[in-house]
């Protein structure tokens, strides 16, 4: 088997050496799928617009990209996640200042997939449909518009995971089963932890609602909208989510911080917060940024009551007005269809692969020193296999903001839960013109 750079055939062994040199690990020649010959790309500088921590996946993969395509330079532009998506939305509306490759977070992929400003990657010259079977099924569905177009390729996903500090739980006599038996037992454990150690179980009570509304959805059901576009936020799922958040606040087990703020991060660094429920990708944030000093003390577990949830995920798309579409498509395939790059992102930032071929790799079975030798990747892999196909909607981001606003009214102003959700439904219906 041979591969080539700029259309000049080179032995697969040479490509293997390039992979090894770039990442310091052995990698198979199949890391450059699907063809045995790489396309000859014209010299260009492509702009990749991304956000933390996904931008670091690009940064760490660039050494290999540059070996394969030295004539195609990559300019990485990164903004904080909400600023990035707001900027991209504005650029698409104006049809100007657009990147060649656009990173898209799960929370926004519905809106961007529906945009007529993105290339349909199912169409020539892309032909992304040939890769569909290689990915976890729900990822392609999430990036597919109501018109049947594919607005982006999946890069990673976020199997819902409970991370907790075992050392702090041990001090309070709390077992993992106390945290995971039920949502109520999780809150009860928080009371016990606070009484014994003064540590908060949660950074914010809203985190509890945020994970619960994503849990145990049926195939084809969305978080905020049903399969016919109906608004779901007054359903029993949302009522229960708000009740759990309110119970956590009343119990005094949350630090009342907002995710992704400096105060939120300090809670982990200063041992003030003992658990967090998010996607499995949080493992990378904990180890590299949020709590590197508490290495060996964290553990990962299934969500309470055996709940299954998808929390996050990333995609890459190409704007129709991008300047370098051929180079952009090769870069997207490099980041998504390339098993070794997918595994490298897992190792570097904890981004769990959307590509199924990565799941059989021995890396999945490696003990993680940060988690006390626990094989956390196996936990994420097993959860990923069970997550249903979740419907996305172009108004998901709007609905999320409205629901969060009403939840804050419940937590801070003691607004009646059913009234809050009825108000949320009315406002979402108006904004989405449903």
UniProtKB/TrEMBL annotation:
Name of the featured protein: Sugar ABC transporter substrate-binding protein
Lineage: Bacteria, Pseudomonadati, Pseudomonadota, Betaproteobacteria, Burkholderiales
PANTHER family found in the cross-reference section: ARABINOSE-BINDING PROTEIN-RELATED, SUGAR BINDING SECRETED PROTEIN
Location of the protein in the cell: Periplasm
Top-level taxon: Bacteria
Gene Ontology cellular component terms for the protein in this record: periplasmic space
Coiled-coil segments on the chain, per record: none
Pfam family, one: SBP_bac_1
Family: Belongs to the bacterial solute-binding protein 1 family.
Species this protein is from: Janthinobacterium svalbardensis
């Amino acid at each position: 088997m041979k591969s080539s750079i700029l259309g000049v055939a080179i032995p697969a062994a040479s490509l293997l050496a390039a992979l090894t040199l770039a990442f310091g690990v052995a990698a198979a020649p199949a890391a450059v799928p699907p063809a045995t010959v790489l396309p000859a790309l014209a010299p260009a500088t492509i702009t990749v617009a991304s956000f933390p921590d996904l931008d670091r996946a690009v940064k760490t993969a660039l050494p290999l990209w540059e070996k394969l395509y030295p004539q195609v330079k990559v300019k990485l532009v990164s903004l904080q996640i909400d600023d990035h998506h707001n900027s991209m939305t504005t650029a698409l509306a104006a049809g100007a200042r657009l990147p060649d490759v656009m990173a898209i977070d799960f929370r926004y992929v519905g809106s961007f997939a529906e945009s007529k400003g993105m290339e349909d990657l199912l169409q020539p010259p892309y032909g992304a449909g040939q890769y569909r079977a290689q990915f976890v099924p729900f990822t392609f569905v999430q990036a597919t518009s109501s018109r049947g177009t594919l607005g982006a390729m999946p890069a990673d996903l976020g199997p819902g995971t409970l991370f907790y500090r075992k050392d702090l739980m041990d001090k309070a006599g709390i077992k993992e089963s106390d945290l995971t038996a039920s949502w109520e037992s999780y809150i009860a454990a928080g009371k016990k932890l606070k009484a014994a150690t003064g540590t908060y179980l949660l950074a914010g009570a809203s985190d509890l609602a945020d994970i619960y509304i994503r849990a145990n959805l049926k195939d084809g059901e969305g978080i905020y909208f049903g399969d016919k576009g109906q608004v779901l936020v007054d359903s029993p799922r949302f009522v229960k989510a708000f009740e759990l958040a309110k119970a956590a606040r009343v119990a005094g087990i949350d630090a009342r911080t907002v995710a992704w703020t400096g105060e939120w991060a300090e809670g982990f660094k200063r041992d003030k917060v003992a658990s967090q429920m998010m996607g499995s990708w949080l493992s990378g944030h904990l180890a590299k940024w949020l709590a590197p000093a508490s290495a060996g003390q964290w553990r990962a577990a299934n969500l309470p009551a055996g709940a299954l949830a998808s929390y996050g995920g990333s995609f890459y798309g190409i704007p129709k007005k991008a300047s370098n579409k051929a180079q952009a498509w090769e870069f997207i395939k490099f980041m998504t269809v390339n098993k070794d790059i997918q595994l490298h992102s897992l190792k570097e930032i904890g981004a769990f692969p959307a590509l199924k071929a990565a799941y059989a790799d021995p890396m999945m079975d490696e003990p993680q020193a940060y988690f006390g030798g626990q094989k956390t990747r196996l936990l994420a892999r097993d959860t990923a296999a069970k997550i249903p196909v979740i419907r996305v909607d172009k108004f998901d981001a709007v609905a999320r903001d409205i629901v969060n606003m009403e939840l804050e009214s419940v937590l801070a102003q003691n607004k009646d839960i059913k009234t809050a959700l009825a108000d949320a439904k009315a406002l979402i219906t108006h904004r989405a013109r449903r």
